[in-house]
Amino acid sequence: MNWLSPIAALLGAVIGAGASLLAQRGQWRQQLQAQDHQARRQLYGQYLAALHEAGERLHLLAAGVKKPDADLFMEAAHEALSSESLYSLRAQLVISAPEPVVKEVRKSLLAMRNLRDCIGRRSLLGSEEHKAAYRAVRETQERLRDLMRADVVGRGR
Protein backbone atom coordinates (compact mmCIF):
# COMPACT_ATOMS: atom_id res chain seq x y z
CA MET A 1 0.00 0.00 0.00
CA ASN A 2 1.24 3.48 -0.88
CA TRP A 3 1.32 5.72 2.24
CA LEU A 4 2.96 8.62 0.52
CA SER A 5 -0.26 10.14 -0.85
CA PRO A 6 -2.22 10.16 2.45
CA ILE A 7 0.82 11.48 4.36
CA ALA A 8 1.32 14.25 1.80
CA ALA A 9 -2.39 15.15 2.00
CA LEU A 10 -2.26 15.20 5.81
CA LEU A 11 0.90 17.32 5.78
CA GLY A 12 -0.73 19.73 3.32
CA ALA A 13 -3.80 20.03 5.54
CA VAL A 14 -1.66 20.71 8.64
CA ILE A 15 0.38 23.36 6.78
CA GLY A 16 -2.80 24.96 5.40
CA ALA A 17 -4.49 25.05 8.78
CA GLY A 18 -1.33 26.43 10.42
CA ALA A 19 -1.00 29.16 7.80
CA SER A 20 -4.65 30.07 8.23
CA LEU A 21 -4.29 30.31 12.01
CA LEU A 22 -1.16 32.41 11.64
CA ALA A 23 -2.93 34.79 9.26
CA GLN A 24 -5.89 35.09 11.62
CA ARG A 25 -3.57 35.82 14.52
CA GLY A 26 -1.93 38.58 12.50
CA GLN A 27 -5.31 40.11 11.67
CA TRP A 28 -6.37 39.89 15.31
CA ARG A 29 -3.16 41.67 16.39
CA GLN A 30 -3.73 44.41 13.80
CA GLN A 31 -7.30 44.89 15.02
CA LEU A 32 -6.12 45.22 18.62
CA GLN A 33 -3.48 47.75 17.60
CA ALA A 34 -6.05 49.74 15.62
CA GLN A 35 -8.41 49.77 18.63
CA ASP A 36 -5.59 50.86 20.94
CA HIS A 37 -4.57 53.56 18.48
CA GLN A 38 -8.12 54.88 18.22
CA ALA A 39 -8.59 54.85 22.01
CA ARG A 40 -5.36 56.84 22.51
CA ARG A 41 -6.38 59.31 19.79
CA GLN A 42 -9.71 59.90 21.52
CA LEU A 43 -8.08 60.18 24.95
CA TYR A 44 -5.50 62.64 23.60
CA GLY A 45 -8.29 64.81 22.21
CA GLN A 46 -10.22 64.72 25.48
CA TYR A 47 -7.14 65.63 27.51
CA LEU A 48 -6.16 68.53 25.23
CA ALA A 49 -9.74 69.82 25.28
CA ALA A 50 -9.81 69.64 29.10
CA LEU A 51 -6.49 71.52 29.26
CA HIS A 52 -7.90 74.17 26.95
CA GLU A 53 -11.09 74.58 28.99
CA ALA A 54 -9.13 74.86 32.23
CA GLY A 55 -6.89 77.45 30.59
CA GLU A 56 -9.91 79.45 29.48
CA ARG A 57 -11.33 79.45 33.01
CA LEU A 58 -8.00 80.59 34.40
CA HIS A 59 -7.82 83.30 31.73
CA LEU A 60 -11.19 84.68 32.84
CA LEU A 61 -9.74 85.14 36.32
CA ALA A 62 -6.44 86.57 35.07
CA ALA A 63 -8.18 89.06 32.78
CA GLY A 64 -10.50 90.23 35.54
CA VAL A 65 -13.64 89.05 33.73
CA LYS A 66 -14.49 86.81 36.66
CA LYS A 67 -13.88 88.71 39.92
CA PRO A 68 -14.14 86.65 43.10
CA ASP A 69 -13.81 88.18 46.54
CA ALA A 70 -10.22 88.95 47.44
CA ASP A 71 -9.99 86.15 50.00
CA LEU A 72 -11.51 83.63 47.56
CA PHE A 73 -9.15 84.29 44.63
CA MET A 74 -6.91 81.26 45.22
CA GLU A 75 -9.96 79.07 45.74
CA ALA A 76 -11.44 80.32 42.45
CA ALA A 77 -8.16 79.55 40.67
CA HIS A 78 -8.11 76.03 42.11
CA GLU A 79 -11.74 75.54 41.12
CA ALA A 80 -11.01 76.73 37.58
CA LEU A 81 -8.38 74.05 37.13
CA SER A 82 -10.12 71.22 38.97
CA SER A 83 -13.49 71.75 37.30
CA GLU A 84 -12.22 69.83 34.28
CA SER A 85 -11.44 66.13 34.37
CA LEU A 86 -7.69 66.67 33.90
CA TYR A 87 -6.64 64.40 36.73
CA SER A 88 -8.78 61.43 35.74
CA LEU A 89 -7.77 61.83 32.09
CA ARG A 90 -4.12 62.06 33.13
CA ALA A 91 -4.50 58.79 35.04
CA GLN A 92 -5.86 57.13 31.92
CA LEU A 93 -2.99 58.51 29.84
CA VAL A 94 -0.42 57.20 32.31
CA ILE A 95 -1.55 53.64 31.66
CA SER A 96 -2.14 53.86 27.92
CA ALA A 97 0.26 56.38 26.38
CA PRO A 98 3.95 55.87 25.57
CA GLU A 99 6.43 57.16 28.17
CA PRO A 100 7.47 60.36 26.28
CA VAL A 101 3.81 61.43 26.13
CA VAL A 102 3.27 60.59 29.82
CA LYS A 103 6.31 62.69 30.81
CA GLU A 104 5.05 65.66 28.80
CA VAL A 105 1.53 65.25 30.23
CA ARG A 106 3.05 65.58 33.70
CA LYS A 107 5.04 68.66 32.65
CA SER A 108 2.03 70.32 31.03
CA LEU A 109 -0.15 69.73 34.08
CA LEU A 110 2.58 71.05 36.38
CA ALA A 111 2.90 74.17 34.20
CA MET A 112 -0.87 74.63 34.32
CA ARG A 113 -0.82 74.29 38.12
CA ASN A 114 1.96 76.87 38.32
CA LEU A 115 -0.18 79.23 36.23
CA ARG A 116 -3.13 78.52 38.52
CA ASP A 117 -1.05 79.38 41.59
CA CYS A 118 0.28 82.51 39.90
CA ILE A 119 -3.26 83.70 39.19
CA GLY A 120 -4.37 82.64 42.67
CA ARG A 121 -1.69 84.98 44.09
CA ARG A 122 -3.24 87.71 41.92
CA SER A 123 -0.38 87.92 39.42
CA LEU A 124 -2.78 88.72 36.66
CA LEU A 125 -2.69 89.35 32.93
CA GLY A 126 0.19 91.62 32.01
CA SER A 127 2.36 90.90 35.04
CA GLU A 128 5.81 89.41 34.42
CA GLU A 129 5.02 86.40 36.61
CA HIS A 130 1.86 85.69 34.63
CA LYS A 131 3.67 86.08 31.30
CA ALA A 132 6.36 83.59 32.36
CA ALA A 133 3.82 81.09 33.70
CA TYR A 134 1.66 81.39 30.59
CA ARG A 135 4.69 80.94 28.31
CA ALA A 136 5.61 77.74 30.18
CA VAL A 137 2.05 76.43 29.72
CA ARG A 138 2.07 77.25 26.02
CA GLU A 139 5.48 75.62 25.43
CA THR A 140 4.66 72.41 27.31
CA GLN A 141 1.31 72.11 25.54
CA GLU A 142 2.96 72.58 22.14
CA ARG A 143 5.47 69.80 22.92
CA LEU A 144 2.66 67.62 24.22
CA ARG A 145 0.59 68.11 21.06
CA ASP A 146 3.63 67.30 18.90
CA LEU A 147 4.30 64.08 20.83
CA MET A 148 0.66 63.05 20.73
CA ARG A 149 0.45 63.77 17.02
CA ALA A 150 3.61 61.73 16.38
CA ASP A 151 2.18 58.82 18.37
CA VAL A 152 -1.14 58.95 16.58
CA VAL A 153 0.48 58.84 13.13
CA GLY A 154 2.73 55.98 14.22
CA ARG A 155 6.11 57.61 14.81
CA GLY A 156 5.89 57.67 18.60
CA ARG A 157 6.41 54.02 19.49
List keywords for this structure.
mainly alpha, single chain, 5 helices, 157 residues
Write the layout of secondary structure elements.
Layout: H1 4-62, H2 73-82, H3 86-96, H4 99-120, H5 128-152
Walk me through this protein's architecture:
The chain is mainly alpha-helical. The protein contains five helices and no strands. The chain has helices at 4-62, 73-82, 86-96, 99-120, 128-152. α1 packs antiparallel against α3 and α1 (4-62) runs parallel beside α4 (99-120). The model has no long low-confidence stretch (mean pLDDT 87).
Mean pLDDT rating: 87
Unreliable sequence segments:
none
The total of helices stands at 5
Distance between the termini: 58 Å
Report the principal-axis shape.
rod-shaped
Give the % helix: over 70%
Tell me the strand percentage band: under 5%
Taking the sheet with the most strands, its summary is: none
Oligomer state equals single chain
Structural class: mainly alpha
Radius of gyration from the alpha-carbon trace, in angstroms: 26 Å
The succession of helices and strands, N to C, reads HHHHH
Overall number of strands: 0
Can you summarize this structure?
With 157 residues, the chain is an all-alpha fold. 81% of the residues lie in helices and 0% in strands.
